[in-house]
């Protein structure tokens, strides 16, 4: 299948330009603030260092109040002085003329000027080459400069980071090259920047803790949470940087290029280090991604399919290579992004935990096509990987289900109490939604009828979730097959609720049904039900099996135990 390089390049170029403009929206104002704020103040301070101090007479000095969202202050005044027999007057008090409410500089400076005027010790700094230029105060307001630099560093750093990320993404997004890099390369920068943001935005408040606490404002101690969060993010950035320095860039060379939905997805991961052992796992995921709009925008991912394998590990020339190949479900969608929706194929690699944990993610392009990988993975390794997958599936089955298979008969008991976290999250989320709905109903009497509508929606969503979670915590299922007849009994808290009977006549009656998933970090657990279709009825015989491989293994065993030689013939 041919790939349009022009189209890819055009899309990448547009995305890069858009990212550059978006980053410039942050960087531009930050640079402007820096140039006309701290840098201009330092320029004026250096320029006036050679000016002459001349006795001055104060006409007036006042603190002006400016009211808006907050109250800010500025120093306004007028003074006069004489140079070479000529009288001059000026209203320029200091370098800083913009109103603010940072510290007590305005009150302190006004008081200092009044005292100097009262003792006839007031002087002005006058430009000897142009006596009409003068300042009454040459103080550098380091507190204000520091406050402004917080915004410069936060917004400027965000803008520069966005622009660099755009360039990096454009450089790595060449589908035709077949080389993909992990986001780990940038993670320490992202974490470091977030740490800096939390530290800088809280710095003024942290510096004021001693004075505020002495004044009785004990709640000011809460701002110390920000530097603690900053320290945690900084530690995470350090660990990410340590990981990056230890393993290097770790490029992934795709084979085929790009991956093929109806064919194979594979590649070779190269690491500039040897002696890393055999404890590796590669997982391929296909996820649907939806981005919401509005002030509280978020990204939601839904797992469509995943599979794991053991890579074949080889070492040569101080380099470790991991070769892997997947055969994805041919019904899955190809990679795409349109508006707020996207389908993303992701390769996740986990390796040794000592001395530095190895964990990488790669977003790989996958298109419709039937091309296979040309990687030469040995037959011995393929057998080893297959045995490992079967062993893992058997272990998962033994943990999930109580089974007895004997000839054509079987008993499967899906016990209660499994997957507690899955159902507890469901139940408590439902309670939260339903509780919010009840609260809105109570508030609607005073707040308006709109809350009746909103409360109804929340309650109708939350109540079934809560009941479903509660039911899932106590439910169990027993399936028994004898002489081709299957009987299932549904229990809740040990009490039988209902029975169903069906007959097995064809292997086509067995169905694998996705039952949901749960995620912890980068790890996603899938759950499946197995059911038998009998006409219009679908009877579940095993439920909440963890992992696709375990569910498919049970399907194979059921086919082998249920289908007699006569039926196969």
UniProtKB/TrEMBL annotation:
UniProt signal peptide: none
InterPro entries: DUF3592
Alphabetical UniProt keywords: Membrane, Transmembrane, Transmembrane helix
Keyword Lipoprotein belongs to the record: no
TM region positions: 20-39, 145-165, 186-207, 219-238, 420-439, 451-473
Keyword Thylakoid appears in the UniProt entry: no
Pfam families, per database record: DUF3592 (PF12158)
Residue span(s) of domain DUF3592: 63-140
Tree of life domain: Bacteria
Protein name as annotated: DUF3592 domain-containing protein
Organism (species): Thalassolituus maritimus
């Amino acid at each position: 299948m041919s790939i349009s390089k022009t189209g890819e390049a055009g899309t990448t170029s547009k995305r890069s330009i858009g990212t550059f403009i978006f980053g410039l929206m942050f960087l531009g104002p930050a640079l402007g603030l820096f140039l006309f704020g701290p840098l201009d103040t330092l320029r004026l301070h250096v320029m006036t260092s050679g000016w002459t101090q001349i006795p001055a007479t104060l006409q007036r000095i006042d603190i002006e109040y400016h009211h808006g969202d907050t109250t800010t202050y500025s120093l306004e005044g007028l003074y006069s002085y004489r140079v070479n027999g000529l009288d001059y007057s000026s209203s320029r008090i200091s370098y800083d003329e913009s109103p603010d409410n940072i510290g007590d500089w305005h009150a302190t400076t006004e008081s200092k000027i009044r005292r100097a005027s009262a003792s006839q010790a007031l002087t002005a700094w006058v430009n000897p080459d142009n006596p009409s230029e003068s300042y009454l105060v040459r103080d550098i307001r380091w507190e204000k400069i520091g406050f402004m630099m917080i915004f410069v560093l936060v917004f400027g750093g965000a803008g520069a980071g966005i622009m660099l990320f755009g360039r990096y993404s454009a450089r790595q997004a060449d589908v035709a090259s077949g080389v993909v890099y992990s986001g780990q390369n940038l993670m320490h920068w992202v974490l470091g920047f977030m740490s800096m943001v939390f530290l800088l935005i809280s710095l003024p408040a942290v510096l004021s803790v001693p004075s505020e606490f002495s004044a009785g404002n004990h709640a000011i101690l809460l701002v110390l949470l920000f530097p603690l969060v900053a320290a945690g993010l900084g530690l995470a950035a350090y660990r990410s940087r340590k990981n990056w320095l230890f393993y290097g860039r770790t490029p992934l060379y795709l084979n085929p290029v790009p991956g093929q939905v109806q064919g194979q997805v594979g590649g070779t991961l190269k690491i500039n280090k040897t002696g890393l052992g055999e404890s590796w796992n590669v997982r391929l995921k296909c996820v649907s991604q939806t981005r919401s709009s509005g002030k509280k925008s978020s990204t939601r991912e839904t797992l469509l399919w995943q599979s794991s394998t053991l890579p074949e590990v080889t070492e040569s020339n101080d380099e470790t290579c991991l070769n892997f190949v997947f055969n994805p479900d041919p019904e899955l969608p190809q990679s795409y992004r349109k508006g707020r929706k996207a389908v993303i194929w992701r390769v996740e690699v986990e390796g040794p935990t000592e001395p530095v944990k190895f964990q990488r993610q790669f977003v790989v392009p996958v298109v419709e096509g039937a091309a296979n990988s040309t990687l030469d993975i040995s037959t011995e390794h393929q057998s080893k990987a297959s045995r490992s997958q079967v062993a893992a599936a058997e272990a998962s089955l033994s943990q999930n289900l109580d089974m007895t298979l004997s000839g054509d008969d079987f008993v499967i008991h899906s016990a209660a109490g499994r997957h507690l976290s899955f159902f507890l999250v469901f139940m408590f989320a439902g309670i939260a939604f339903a509780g919010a709905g009840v609260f809105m109903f109570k508030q609607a009497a005073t707040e308006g009828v709109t809350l009746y509508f909103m409360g109804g929606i929340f309650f109708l969503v939350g109540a079934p979730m809560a009941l479903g979670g509660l039911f899932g915590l106590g439910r169990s299922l027993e399936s028994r097959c004898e002489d081709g007849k299957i009987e299932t009994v549904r229990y809740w808290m040990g009490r039988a609720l209902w029975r169903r009977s069906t007959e097995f006549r064809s292997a086509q009656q067995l169905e694998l049904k996705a039952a949901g998933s749960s995620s912890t970090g980068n790890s996603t657990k899938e759950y499946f039900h197995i059911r038998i279709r009998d006409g219009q009825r679908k009877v579940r015989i095993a439920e909440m099996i963890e992992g696709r491989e375990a569910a498919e293994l049970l399907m194979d065993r059921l086919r082998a135990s249920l289908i007699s030689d006569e039926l196969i013939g």
